[in-house]
Amino acid sequence: MAITQTKTIEQSLTIEPHHVDRRRYPEGVAFMDGQYLPMSEAKISVLDWGFLHSDATYDTVHVWEGRFFRLNLHLDRFWGGMQRLRMKLPYDREEVTKILHNCVALSGHQSAYVEMICTRGSSPTFSRDPRQAENRFIAFAVPYGSVANKEQLDRGLNVAISETVRIPPKSIDPSIKNYHWLDLVKGLFDAYDQGGESALILDTNGNIAEGPGFNVFIVKGGSLQTPAFGVLPGITRHSVFDLAKEIGLPAEAVDVSRAELSEADEIFITSTAGGIMPVTKINGLPVADGLVGPVTRRLMDLYWKKHSDPIWSTAIDYRSQQ
Amino acid sequence: MAITQTKTIEQSLTIEPHHVDRRRYPEGVAFMDGQYLPMSEAKISVLDWGFLHSDATYDTVHVWEGRFFRLNLHLDRFWGGMQRLRMKLPYDREEVTKILHNCVALSGHQSAYVEMICTRGSSPTFSRDPRQAENRFIAFAVPYGSVANKEQLDRGLNVAISETVRIPPKSIDPSIKNYHWLDLVKGLFDAYDQGGESALILDTNGNIAEGPGFNVFIVKGGSLQTPAFGVLPGITRHSVFDLAKEIGLPAEAVDVSRAELSEADEIFITSTAGGIMPVTKINGLPVADGLVGPVTRRLMDLYWKKHSDPIWSTAIDYRSQQ
Prior knowledge:
nine-stranded mixed sheet; 30% strand; 322 residues; 9 helices; D-amino Acid Aminotransferase, Chain A, domain 1; homodimer; seven-stranded antiparallel sheet; alpha+beta; D-amino Acid Aminotransferase, Chain A, domain 2
């Protein structure tokens, strides 16, 4: 590629009117500027502060067998983030709900990963003042994805702990779902170096915080614990508290030390991308007997059962695309 | 706008083949995928990890009166950041230099703000593994911009201190120039709320760190001090050390407390976007006599003189666009 590019540079110095993009994009539908578009057209200017300053918030809801799962909780968090970032959209909650629904309906995906994004945008006068920016909304529906693949869901993930410290709340409010991931990406590379499949990084006190895109729970003596400090208040994490209550399992958000993690009876991670996913190795060493535990299995089963429960999910009307 | 958009949603539910973008873009030229493009075409997919995870590094060099200023220092920092993020480009340093030059030459700008960006990109298999991503390079040249406008450069900026803490090095290595700015944006809004024109935020120990896109210096008893911990090693900051040495001014990187800032004889900020810029008010109170100080003026003059010095700058060949 280097050679071709160099050739291009030497051969022609003309400004081409339109960008020709040869990348592959997943099957899906996006919404931007009042237009429904194929994913290959869902692009933002490199001058949008959502990119240049990662000045954006977002949320991701999933669709399973034609139904949104807990959409309202995702919309609550998304609106909360926009308010704390002092961003405003030209759409109300009902309109955004309609847009998300239409992206899924137009995509035809029965199981989808649906993202709603608000970026600072940019200033029409090119000023550097974020108060003068026109905030922008983007949404898209792509095929459902999971942190853990089928095999990993069956045997449990091998997760490594990185010394990297999650960006603290004094710097960025973790309840604003954000794209500041360089700490998590560093943690992921650290984990790969140790032979792990994914990573957990630490909070400012050296306790376990979270991983790239997921919260973590430990099961000890029949009760659940998950880190309380400096983590994203995940919707799947929230669901685990709801499910635990339903089946009478004590669950609390507390500090979780590295030692407590290693001595757990069971460990699982939670994410909209995969739901409840078992972890059976930490730093290559088995968690308890190294098998997916009964509490984890029970919560996984219950979590997926809820996807057809009208209290927890809402149907997509795929005919609305005709 | 909300109304129009709602109409769009209700009227048509068709997928349009191409995005129609009505935004305004600055005059400039970008380079992506071997193509030179107008700024309006310089867009990245919302699925690029450079956006979704702010997994990117960049650098910005400026062109003044047809000459790059200290381009090599910017290239050094850019390559250092890519290496620490384990990113690779299909271009070597010589090719990137050529691309940056061509963006400026094609834009015709005599004074430009020139950005080079490396993003993680995305995985052609849509995997979540950053090791499988195809990193991508983007460059662009737009008109030169400054943190401080003409009036502010003459009378000095009014800067407010925010309690927000800059993302610490344990989370993200500040020597990797990055787009993680939500802490700086929060600081900026805090400053606006206090009537300030820009902001300074703190380090994890409560000392002064930096502001949105700039480092800060204080002048006390004829010597210069700038925060040492957790700040971007700015090229203009670097230049101030070089200039201070040239004129025999002592300069050191140390902890700078809020008290030391308030009691300074002079204060200035440094950025590629504006160079050396005077600060004459902190939280609305005058710095010393509230006038731009002699040391600041002397350094500003010297800084701009260096822009025609071949040791500090290199000429653009604008004919290369023909």
